[in-house]
TrEMBL record:
It comes from Emiliania huxleyi (strain CCMP1516). Pfam families: PEX11. This is Peroxisomal membrane protein 11C. GO terms for cellular component: peroxisomal membrane. One of its GO terms (biological process) is peroxisome fission.
Amino acid sequence: MLSAASFSHATHLSRSLELREKIVKVLAYSTKLAAHLHGSSRLAAASKQLSAARKVFSLLHWVRHVDDASDALGESGSLRALALLELAAALVVDLLGDASTLVSLRLLPLSPRLAERLEWCAAAVDAVHALVALGAGAVRASRIERLQAAAPQTAGAGAKAGADPKVGSTDAKLREKLQLARLAIVKYACDLLKASHAAGLRGLRGGGVPLPLALFAGLASGVISSHKVVVKLNGTRETHGTPASSAKKKTS
């Protein structure tokens, strides 16, 4: 059986691989957008190669949802239900993505028609996941805002008693959590636009998401995702007893 320390190190390794995948995602969408705007066939070919490389990096991404499951189960009320639904949708998206990657690598024999349906299903479920994640993100941000609103009263009581340093630390953590929650909302809004375009979904007026907007949304989502993974990696280093500053010195 894996010990807690071994599992923690394995999670850290998976996050490192995830960061590489997000960087490739940013590069892929950057070249796709540039190829579309400038009509460059060379950039279009490069974007296809980057997309293929990103799919390989994304293999077994669903394994990384183990930590997310414990976080979702730790929530309460409506947020717990939304978090579990978000997790289930993300798991289905990752499994469909793995199947699609295996088809593109010719490791899973499927007819072109079934492969195309698989791609559509992955995009449609991704749109559902983004919609659920938007709801969960809004609830998280609202809860953090309520905690932050109550913080000044605690801070004032702490000042009278002798300025407890823990109060300032808690306030800083709440600000950071709120910033990350708001970034997550923007990220999932971008994912919804991107997935809606990929699945060919249309709005109430019959119009779909334009390709340039979908590409820009994918690029923005990649940048925000990279930032999120870096934050998680720094948190993992701290739990291992290695400060982020010393880790940078070792790698330089």
